[in-house]
Every structure is written in structure tokens, then in C-alpha cells.
TrEMBL record:
The keyword Signal applies. This is Organic solvent tolerance-like N-terminal domain-containing protein. Residues 396-456 are annotated as: Disordered. It comes from Niastella populi. Gene3D superfamilies: Lipopolysaccharide (LPS) transport protein A like domain.
Amino acid sequence: MIRYVLSLIITLVALLSIGKVHSQVITTRPGSDTMKVVNLINADRLSYKRPDSLTDLQMLAGNVQLRQGNTLINCDSAVWNKKTRFVEAFGNVHIIDNDTVNIRSQYLQYYVDTKIANLKNNVSLTDSKSTLYTNELQYDLNTKIGEYHNGGKLINQQSVLTSKEGIYYEELKDVYFKKNVYLKDPKYTLKTDSLIYNTASQIATFIAPTTIIDSANRVIQTSDGFYDTRNRKAFFGQRPVLKDGPVTVVATSIATDDSTGISILRGNAVYVDTAQGISVLANRIDANRNDGTFLATQHPLLIIKQDKDSIYITADTLYSGRLSKLPGGYGSKDSSSLLSDTNRLQRDTSFRKRDSALLQGDSIMNLAKDSASLRDTSKIPTAIARVDIDDAAFVPTDSSTMQPDTTVSPKNITKDKAPALTLQKPPPNKNGAKLAPAAGKTAGKPATATTDNKNDSTDRFFQAWHHVRIFSDSMQAISDSLWYSGKDSVFRLYTDPVLWASNSQITGDTIYLYTKNKNPDRLYVFENGFAINLGDKEMYNQIKGNRLHGYFNNGEIDYMRAQGNAESVYYVKDDKGYVKGINNATSDIIDLRFKNKELNKVVFISEVTGTLYPVRQATEENKFLRNFRWLEDKRPKTKFELFEDVKPVIKTDEDSETTKGQQ
């Protein structure tokens, strides 16, 4: 009877060993420091096998579930080696760690003591934000770190990252991608050798040379920084390069916000626009891609590129934008329309005081409305006097005494009496320069409005504030503020402007310098115009008037006209080049013609009076017009000077040794 009972018990145990198993506890050696407890939650079938003394296998099959701490392992079948504390799982492997990470594969090697999981075949790791796909993955359930070395892909919402190698940090939500990293997003693509990506914040951190191309084909090259893919903000360090069509930007660092279009460049920033032929250098540039504006500060320098003679402009602040984006429809207006509203664009005190040019719109086009404006020479009722500097001088005392066809005699010229002179119209300029346009004419008027095109150079304007300095090989200038429009190619210099060309200096309240093909073409000076041409041995030929109009030829001043209370002082020479005297004259209009950078002819039009003084008898008052100032010390000598700080001007009671005629 006892034998029967024992046999029955053994049979029942055998049957149970091949049936469904629930809630068994599998342990390592009791008392071991590395003891780990593995709970067998479920298995449809269970069997044991001990092929040798070192192997003690427990084979599980069908809906297998194992639990170790907060880690749950599901699979189709598994083999548990109790001696080596090693588990192999097969088919539909699913690891759930802390209810936050899900890892799936078709094969698993699991080391119970170290909690290291090696997964193969169609591996996926999913957290709350993203999914990582690879064919082989090693995951440490202690440190929550996973690694792959044979290619992987991370999908985070619409972003897809691929690389040959990668390390996943579950607690930080960081993935460190290495080798052939490629990130594809609807808004951009990214290529690099190494990258850190946070699946929670969706921030990509650059740690190696990286190339980014956005949906607008903007290219960014960097090796340091980050890009916030969710908020579309980025920071690039270590001299990144940004290329946007014809625009290339380089700086020590660049911060961008694609949602607003704003970029901030810091540290030796360079902005190059090949379509418009301009470059900007500064220690800080704030650019807005949406409206095409930029603000350059901290030693900014603007370079307008030309084939032979580029123009360099510096100031405390440089600003540029599109004319078509300005309020009030500026993009559809020419320069005359811009003048009356220029004040609204300025932000410093220098523009609060409207100068004469702004008070009357574009007075260039309305010269005939002023009593001193240029008149049609065929209708001039009074005398026109033309004097060649190398011919005999004239000293008219009263234009009413002039008689037609009276020849000027070089003899018996005295201080008190002037000979009559021949009446004639001023000859046309041999170099083709034309007089200033009369009222209603459209000389110099720009073309019709252009469409809004960021690559259209005519749709761009530049402004500069404080300590403006301009340098080119043929022309230099200074002023307190500047406006330049690509629509009419005019440099507008405001507040104490000075312009130099060769050995000539021009000053006035406001100066407009018109350019053609980026070369000086003509200029207009509004109110208190004063032009000085330095001859031999500090002989200053001078002309002043309410307005000055000048024309250039090959970068040199070729013709100058003063009108409205015009005055002149010039040195008269004989045929051998010796100075005969100093001529002081006034007229309604005075024309100057230049040759080889020196004064060649003087033409007086209407209401001419004057006196010739022998050189030895001439006083300082005879040699200099009132308010004469020779400002050579302020003239930029080289383009390299523009990189230096402006030297402070120390004013004394006598403004300068070269300031004359103040009394």
C-alpha cells in the first residue's frame, strides 16, 4: 500500500512538470552578494535538463513571463541556466522596464546578475517620446543605457535619425549617434559624424562638423552648438558658416530663431551678399531673414564690391533693409519721394533736425523754382564770363558795364578796375558732363518700382549713424549719418559731411553722391556748399554757394557748379605756369572745369563782380573765403584706418590751423 501511494505521488509530480507552470521562484545561491531573484510568472510548459555538472537548464515554452524587480520579460520560449545565471529567450521577446521603456526583439541573451540584455533581430526600443530600431542592441537595465554598433534608426515624431553606432541614455532621454549620422525632418536635413539628440526636448546637440540644409535650401555648417527642433531655435559655435542663396554668413557664434527669422551673429561676424556685391564686417550683426534687414554694431564695416575700386563704409551703427518693406510704400517711390520721409527711419538725434534738403523734398528736381537755380543759358539776360586759368584773368566790377564782343586784355589789370570781357555761353564739357537737370526733367531719376525680391540689389537701402567714414581709392568722405538706396545708387550724407576726391575737398549741410555702376558719377551739395582744390604750394582754389553740383570722370572731379550767392577764390597763372595773382569773384552761378586733377577753367554766369590781387599784396582775407576749413587730418588715408577707432577731435579756440576766413 505504501509503495502504491509513493508511485502515485511520483506520477503526479512528473505530470505537473510538463504542464502549465505559475509563480515559481528561481534564485541564485543563497547568501551570495550578487543574488538576484527571478520570478517565473507564467509558462505553458516547463522541463529540466542537466547534461553535466556545470549545466542546470530549465526550459520554458509558451507565453513565458519572467520578472526581476521592476523588469518584466515576455517571450515565446526561454532557457534558464541556473548554474551560470543566464537566460536565453526566443520569439517575440518583450522587455518592459519600469513601465517606461519597452524593448522588443526576436532573440535575447540576459545576464541575471548584471542585468545586461543582448537583443538581436528586429530590435526596437520605445520610450514615451520615440522609438529606436536596430538589428542588435545591448541594454543595461541597471544604468538604463543601450548601445548598438551595426546601424540604427530613431523616429521621434516627424524626425528620423540614422547612424552606424549609437548609445541611448534612458534616464536622460539622450541618444548619442556616431558614424554616418543623418537626420531627416520635414523642415531640414542634417549630416554629421557625431550628434547628441534628446528625445524629450527634441534638441540636437552638435559635437562634430555638421551640415544642415533646411527646406529653403539654407545651408549651415558648424561643429558646435544645438538646434531645438520643436521651437526652431538654434545656437552654432566655433565659427559656423551659414549660406542662404547668395548670402554667406560667418561668425564666432550664430543664434537663430526660425519662427521669427531673427539671427544674431557675434564675434568677427562677416555677412557677404554676392548678388548685391556687398560685405558687412562687425562684432555683432542682428539679421531678420523674414524682412531682409540687418543691424551691424561694434565696429561695423560695409564693403560695396567693385571690379577695381571697392567702397568701404564704417560707422558706429549700420542698418540695411528692403525698400519694398518700408512703411508707406517706399518700394514704389524714387529718391525724391524718400527725402521728405527720411526722418521717420532714423533713430538718433542727428536726424531730428531736418536739413534743407529734407525740407523741400528733392530740390535737385526743382532747381528752377529757386531764384538761384540753374537757368537755361540761352535765356540769360546778363553777361556770361569764361576764364581759362592759363589765360589772362578778368576782374569785373559791375556786370552792367559789360559790353558784347569786348575782348579781355591781360594788360593793365589793377585791383580797382576790371576790364570788360567777351560774352559767350559756356562750352559743353569735353568729357560729356551735363549740367544739373532743370525743373521737370528726369535726369538721374530711378526706374519704376521693383517687386519684392530678396536678391534684387535695387530693393535694398543702407543707413549709418555716427562717425561715418567712407573710403575708396578715388573718393573718401565722412559725416555723422548716411542713407544709401540701391534704387537710385545715391549716398546721402547728413550732418557735417566732407567729401574728398584727389586733391579736392567738398563740404556742406548735406551731400548727395550719385554713383553709376558703383563708381562716383555726380554730386549735389545742399546749403553752405564749399569746394576746395589744393594746387601747388598750398594754393587753395575755392568755390562756395548755396548749392554745389559736381560731375566725375573716371573717379576724378571733372566739373563743379556753384549757384546762389556763389563766391570763388582761385590762383591765376600765366602761360608758363607762374602765378599772376589771386582772383576773388562773386556771381549768381560759377562753373569750374578741372584737368589732370587741377582747376583749368572758371566760368561766371550772371551778376559777376570780382577783383584780382597781386600775390604779394594779397592778405589772408584775400586768399581764403569765409568759413574756409581744410580738413585733411580727418580724411581716411587707407581702408585699414576704418578698422581703427575714431580719433577724438579736441577743439580749441582756433578750430584748426587750416581754418581761415572766420572774421
